[in-house]
């Protein structure tokens, strides 16, 4: 480019000089027609010589001017290329005050404004990305062709490494409901909604896909797994409570109607019927008490009066208060010892925990004839246990026995008067203390229920 500019400038300058010489030759020839021929030839030679001298002098000047202009144009071209490559910090050095300097100043000002605009855009983009990454919802943006344009951190955690910019969304996720919502937003240009249940195992998402003004679509996924789980738990809880109440109520109603209709029944029969009614009423009363206890420990307002207390004292108190219940069941209590370490516990709440575990052992482990109750020290906590030597619990039930209304043997549980809430109450009380519960069992050898309590922090 610079050579072409130099050649054009030099050629134009030479052409002007030649034209100037020719004009002077013509003028002098017309002016000197009446002059002697020798004078005319002499003046022509002088004009030609003066033109040649001017040409020889002008050539270096033209070359210098062309080289200087070419150098400045080369800097302008290099500057434009740097800006085109994204280097908005590039600037032109202004060494003079001519027309090219004004152009260079305008280009520098343009580059500065572009840099400010791009910096502001990048800052806003980073703020938007940070805001979207901090959302609880998963967000993914796709182009009009269905390719992933951008996704936030939540979406990347859900979809894994499969989702990335430039890859078709259909190759990144396999949920048909999500893909249908995005496709509808792209084609119909309206907001689409749906529910994705196969995007991540065990999780459910509400999907909302909306078209973008510049083309493409934006999909937002809201995790409703907990809501659905809570709703399902609520439905199951109501169904279980209704079922548990229906049986004693039906029994009470039937026996009362029989007594009312059969006024001539013998005192023995009436006493028998009243005994059944009393048993059903007690079962309803026990269920009501357990429901109130469970509602209390599950409430956010549930407060514990925790205090430092020796683990051995908790075991001793439980042994004294529950010894009569164990003796009435025909079983023996076998103390297994406990450490003197201090734990943070609410004695009344722990008495309820031991009571529920011992009662559970007397109901389902009475064939073993004895119950062991004790504790042992772990690294930063004390683990308490209640062990029976009954028939044991099948392994497939161990993970669910702390759920509300879950029973291994439903018929036997109802026969013994169990409500199915005792172990759930135990779990919530222990968790409120910052501990954990678990169960171990070997079929034919009995079951052991464990729970932990944190030690009192050592004074610094």
Condensed summary:
With 460 residues, the chain is of the alpha+beta class. It has helices at 2-31, 37-84, 99-133, 153-159, 169-172, 176-188, 225-261, 267-298, 311-328, 347-364, 410-416, 422-432, and strands at 138-142, 148-151, 192-196, 205-211, 217-223, 307-310, 332-335, 342-345, 370-377, 381-388, 437-442, 446-454.
Structural notes for this entry:
The chain has 460 residues and is of the alpha+beta class. It folds into 4 domains: 83 residues, no CATH class; 89 residues, Beta-Lactamase; 71 residues, Signal transduction histidine kinase, dimerisation/phosphotransfer (DHp) domain (Helix Hairpins); 148 residues, Heat Shock Protein 90 (2-Layer Sandwich). A 5-stranded antiparallel beta sheet has the order 2-1-5-4-3. A hairpin with a 3-residue loop joins strand 9 and strand 10. Helix 8 packs parallel to helix 12. The two termini are 81 Å apart.
């Amino acid at each position: 480019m610079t050579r072409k500019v130099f050649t054009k400038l030099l050629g134009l300058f030479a052409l002007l000089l030649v034209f100037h010489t020719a004009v002077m030759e013509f003028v002098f020839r017309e002016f000197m027609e009446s002059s002697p021929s020798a004078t005319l030839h002499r003046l022509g030679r002088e004009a030609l010589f003066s033109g040649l001298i001017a040409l020889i002098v002008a050539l270096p000047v033209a070359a210098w001017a062309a080289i200087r202009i070419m150098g400045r144009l080369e800097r302008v071209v290099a500057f434009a290329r740097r800006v085109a490559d994204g280097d908005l910090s590039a600037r032109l050095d202004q060494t003079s005050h001519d027309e090219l300097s004004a152009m260079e100043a305008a280009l520098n000002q343009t580059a500065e404004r572009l840099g400010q605009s791009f910096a502001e855009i990048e800052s806003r983009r980073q703020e938007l990305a940070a805001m979207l990454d901090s959302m609880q919802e998963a967000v993914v943006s796709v182009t009009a062709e269905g390719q992933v344009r951008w996704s936030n951190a939540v979406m990347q955690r859900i979809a894994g490494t499969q989702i990335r910019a430039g890859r078709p969304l259909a190759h990144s996720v396999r949920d048909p409901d999500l893909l249908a919502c995005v496709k509808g937003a792209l084609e119909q240009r309206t907001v689409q909604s749906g529910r994705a249940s196969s995007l991540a195992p065990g999780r459910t998402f509400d999907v909302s896909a909306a078209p973008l003004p510049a083309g493409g679509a934006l999909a937002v996924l809201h995790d409703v797994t907990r809501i659905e789980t809570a709703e399902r738990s609520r439905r199951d809880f109501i169904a279980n409570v209704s079922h548990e109440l229906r049986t004693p109520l039906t029994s009470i109603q039937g026996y009362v109607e029989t007594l009312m209709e059969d006024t001539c029944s013998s005192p023995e029969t009436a006493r028998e019927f009243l005994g059944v009614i009393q048993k059903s009423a007690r079962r309803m009363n026990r269920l009501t008490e357990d429901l109130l206890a469970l509602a209390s420990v599950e409430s956010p307002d549930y407060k514990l009066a925790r205090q430092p207390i020796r683990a051995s004292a908790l075991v001793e108190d439980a042994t004294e208060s529950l010894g009569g219940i164990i003796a009435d069941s025909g079983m023996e209590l076998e103390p297994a010892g406990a450490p003197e370490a201090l734990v943070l516990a609410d004695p009344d709440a722990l008495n309820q925990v031991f009571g529920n575990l011992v009662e559970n052992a007397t109901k389902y482990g009475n064939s073993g004839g004895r119950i062991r109750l004790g504790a042992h020290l772990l690294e930063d906590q004390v683990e308490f246990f209640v062990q029976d030597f009954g028939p044991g619990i099948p392994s497939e039930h161990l993970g669910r026995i702390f759920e509300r209304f879950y029973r291994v043997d439903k018929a036997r549980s109802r026969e013994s008067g169990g409500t199915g809430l005792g172990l759930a109450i135990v779990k919530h009380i222990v968790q409120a203390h910052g501990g954990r519960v678990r169960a171990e069992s070997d079929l034919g050898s009995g079951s052991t229920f464990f729970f932990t309590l944190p030690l009192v922090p050592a004074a610094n």
